[in-house]
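Sequence in, structure out.
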Amino acid sequence: MSIYNTEVEKAIRAIQEKRAKIVCIQLPDGLKPDAGAIADVIREKTSARVLIWLGSNFGACDIPLGLQRMGVDLLISWGHNRFHKKQEGW
């Protein structure tokens, strides 16, 4: 895998907590070369079926269409920054 910390352990915990059977992972372009390795780790640790979204990923508002139709239980989207609580004055 890449030099980036993908925090795949957090994804694994979320999958286990939600007992997700079909998971879609969405990665920014810079992490897409690692998609197969990330999916392999998730499959190994959870036995979930992992779908890799190869379309765009421009942030949290760029959610793939049709996931529900495909039976996806959980979408895990990797991004560049954490979400922060809205601060006063924003």
